[in-house]
Amino acid sequence: MEKTVENIMELKYPHPHIKPQATYTDTIDEAGAIDKDLGYAEGSFSDARPYRIECWVIEQVVMATIYFSDRNIKTWQKEQLITYLEQEKLVEWLTVEKNLQGKQAKDDLGIALWVVNIKLKDEKEQFAKLKVTLVPYQQLNE
Question: What is the H or E stretch that residue 23 is in?
Fold first, then answer.
Protein backbone atom coordinates (compact mmCIF):
# COMPACT_ATOMS: atom_id res chain seq x y z
CA MET A 1 0.00 0.00 0.00
CA GLU A 2 2.82 2.39 0.82
CA LYS A 3 4.32 1.93 -2.65
CA THR A 4 1.06 3.05 -4.30
CA VAL A 5 1.06 6.24 -2.25
CA GLU A 6 4.68 6.90 -3.24
CA ASN A 7 3.83 6.42 -6.93
CA ILE A 8 0.96 8.88 -6.68
CA MET A 9 3.22 11.38 -4.93
CA GLU A 10 5.82 11.00 -7.69
CA LEU A 11 3.29 11.90 -10.40
CA LYS A 12 4.49 15.31 -11.52
CA TYR A 13 2.04 15.84 -14.36
CA PRO A 14 -1.33 14.30 -15.13
CA HIS A 15 -1.81 12.31 -18.31
CA PRO A 16 -4.23 13.98 -20.77
CA HIS A 17 -7.54 12.13 -20.68
CA ILE A 18 -8.96 12.61 -24.14
CA LYS A 19 -11.47 10.10 -25.46
CA PRO A 20 -9.59 8.22 -28.17
CA GLN A 21 -11.14 7.72 -31.57
CA ALA A 22 -12.94 4.38 -31.52
CA THR A 23 -13.32 4.04 -35.27
CA TYR A 24 -11.66 5.21 -38.45
CA THR A 25 -14.13 7.02 -40.68
CA ASP A 26 -14.28 9.59 -43.42
CA THR A 27 -16.97 12.05 -42.36
CA ILE A 28 -18.49 14.54 -44.77
CA ASP A 29 -19.85 17.65 -43.06
CA GLU A 30 -22.73 19.89 -44.19
CA ALA A 31 -20.42 21.89 -46.48
CA GLY A 32 -19.17 18.73 -48.16
CA ALA A 33 -15.71 18.83 -46.52
CA ILE A 34 -14.11 15.47 -45.89
CA ASP A 35 -12.78 15.12 -42.35
CA LYS A 36 -10.49 12.14 -41.76
CA ASP A 37 -8.83 11.01 -38.54
CA LEU A 38 -5.33 9.75 -39.43
CA GLY A 39 -3.73 8.53 -36.21
CA TYR A 40 -2.39 9.26 -32.76
CA ALA A 41 0.73 8.96 -30.62
CA GLU A 42 1.37 9.10 -26.90
CA GLY A 43 4.57 9.66 -24.96
CA SER A 44 6.29 11.83 -22.40
CA PHE A 45 8.49 14.89 -22.70
CA SER A 46 11.92 15.00 -21.02
CA ASP A 47 10.37 16.69 -17.95
CA ALA A 48 8.06 13.61 -17.54
CA ARG A 49 5.05 15.56 -18.84
CA PRO A 50 2.82 13.06 -20.76
CA TYR A 51 1.34 14.08 -24.11
CA ARG A 52 -1.15 12.81 -26.66
CA ILE A 53 -1.05 13.79 -30.33
CA GLU A 54 -3.95 13.35 -32.72
CA CYS A 55 -3.43 13.87 -36.44
CA TRP A 56 -6.29 14.58 -38.83
CA VAL A 57 -7.01 16.09 -42.22
CA ILE A 58 -9.82 18.30 -43.48
CA GLU A 59 -10.01 19.56 -47.06
CA GLN A 60 -6.39 18.61 -47.84
CA VAL A 61 -5.04 20.40 -44.75
CA VAL A 62 -3.20 18.05 -42.38
CA MET A 63 -3.31 19.11 -38.73
CA ALA A 64 -1.89 17.81 -35.47
CA THR A 65 -3.40 18.48 -32.07
CA ILE A 66 -1.12 18.00 -29.08
CA TYR A 67 -2.52 17.72 -25.54
CA PHE A 68 -0.33 18.06 -22.43
CA SER A 69 -0.56 19.32 -18.85
CA ASP A 70 -0.30 23.07 -18.33
CA ARG A 71 1.04 22.61 -14.78
CA ASN A 72 3.82 25.18 -14.15
CA ILE A 73 3.51 26.57 -17.72
CA LYS A 74 0.08 28.22 -17.69
CA THR A 75 1.38 31.62 -18.75
CA TRP A 76 3.35 30.48 -21.78
CA GLN A 77 2.93 32.31 -25.06
CA LYS A 78 3.13 30.99 -28.63
CA GLU A 79 6.93 31.35 -28.88
CA GLN A 80 7.48 29.40 -25.67
CA LEU A 81 5.24 26.57 -26.92
CA ILE A 82 7.14 26.50 -30.22
CA THR A 83 10.50 26.38 -28.44
CA TYR A 84 9.31 23.63 -26.07
CA LEU A 85 8.06 21.40 -28.90
CA GLU A 86 11.30 21.99 -30.83
CA GLN A 87 13.52 21.22 -27.83
CA GLU A 88 11.52 18.09 -27.10
CA LYS A 89 12.09 17.00 -30.73
CA LEU A 90 8.39 16.47 -31.28
CA VAL A 91 7.98 18.86 -34.22
CA GLU A 92 10.35 19.88 -36.98
CA TRP A 93 9.50 23.18 -38.68
CA LEU A 94 10.13 23.26 -42.44
CA THR A 95 9.26 26.91 -43.07
CA VAL A 96 9.98 30.22 -41.35
CA GLU A 97 6.30 30.62 -40.51
CA LYS A 98 5.26 28.36 -37.64
CA ASN A 99 1.56 27.63 -37.90
CA LEU A 100 0.77 26.94 -34.24
CA GLN A 101 -2.16 27.93 -32.06
CA GLY A 102 -2.27 27.07 -28.38
CA LYS A 103 -5.07 27.42 -25.91
CA GLN A 104 -5.78 26.20 -22.44
CA ALA A 105 -8.69 23.85 -21.92
CA LYS A 106 -9.83 20.99 -19.72
CA ASP A 107 -9.66 17.31 -20.61
CA ASP A 108 -12.47 14.76 -20.20
CA LEU A 109 -11.75 14.59 -16.44
CA GLY A 110 -11.72 18.36 -16.01
CA ILE A 111 -7.92 18.60 -15.69
CA ALA A 112 -6.32 21.76 -17.12
CA LEU A 113 -4.09 21.28 -20.15
CA TRP A 114 -2.62 22.87 -23.24
CA VAL A 115 -4.27 22.11 -26.58
CA VAL A 116 -1.83 23.00 -29.35
CA ASN A 117 -2.91 22.85 -33.00
CA ILE A 118 -0.23 22.76 -35.69
CA LYS A 119 -0.86 23.05 -39.41
CA LEU A 120 1.48 20.44 -40.87
CA LYS A 121 0.70 20.83 -44.56
CA ASP A 122 -1.82 21.91 -47.14
CA GLU A 123 -2.21 21.08 -50.83
CA LYS A 124 0.68 23.42 -51.75
CA GLU A 125 3.26 23.23 -48.97
CA GLN A 126 4.49 21.26 -45.97
CA PHE A 127 5.08 23.53 -42.97
CA ALA A 128 6.16 21.04 -40.31
CA LYS A 129 6.39 17.36 -39.58
CA LEU A 130 5.91 15.30 -36.48
CA LYS A 131 8.96 13.41 -35.28
CA VAL A 132 6.94 10.56 -33.77
CA THR A 133 5.35 7.51 -35.31
CA LEU A 134 1.57 7.67 -35.46
CA VAL A 135 -0.66 4.69 -34.79
CA PRO A 136 -3.23 4.73 -37.62
CA TYR A 137 -6.82 4.71 -36.41
CA GLN A 138 -7.73 2.18 -39.09
CA GLN A 139 -5.59 -0.40 -37.24
CA LEU A 140 -8.00 -0.15 -34.32
CA ASN A 141 -10.75 -1.68 -36.47
CA GLU A 142 -8.72 -4.64 -37.71
Answer: none
DSSP SS3 for 67: strand
Report which of 85, 91, 64 is spatially closest to residue 73, judged by C-alpha positions: 85
Contact 122, 128 (CB under 8 A): no
Contacts of 103 (CB under 8 A, 6+ apart): 114, 115
**Whether 101 contacts 82, CB under 8 Å:** no
Amino acid making up residue 12: K
Rg (CA), the chain: 16
Q: From 16, 92, 110, select the one nearest 54 (Cα to Cα).
A: 16
5-44 pLDDT, tens digit each: 444 445 688 888 876 544 445 555 555 555 678 889 999 9
